[in-house]
Write a structure and sequence with these properties.
Blueprint: H1 21-55, H2 58-70
Helix pairs in contact: 1-2
Length: 72
């Protein structure tokens, strides 16, 4: 009398995506550097606008800067 047996294996779903810890750290580092660069850019813009306002205009700011640099 023949005996038949069936074997069922576990099936796994593979997504194909693997994230590396170094990749995630790099992404966070790039984001932090980008945010810091944006903050520095905004601060420098605020300083230039403040300088223009306190000197009385763009031409006054430029002439005062040249006087300060040249010593005149």
């Amino acid at each position: 009398m023949p005996v038949s047996t069936s074997v069922q294996g576990k099936k796994r779903a593979a997504t194909g995506e693997r994230t590396d810890a170094a990749t995630e750290v790099s992404k966070v580092s790039i984001a932090v550097v980008g945010i810091f660069a944006a903050m520095v850019g905004l601060w420098s813009l605020a300083c230039i606008v403040g300088g223009i306002m306190s000197s009385g205009g763009v031409s006054q700011l430029v002439s005062s800067w040249f006087k300060a640099v040249s010593g005149g």
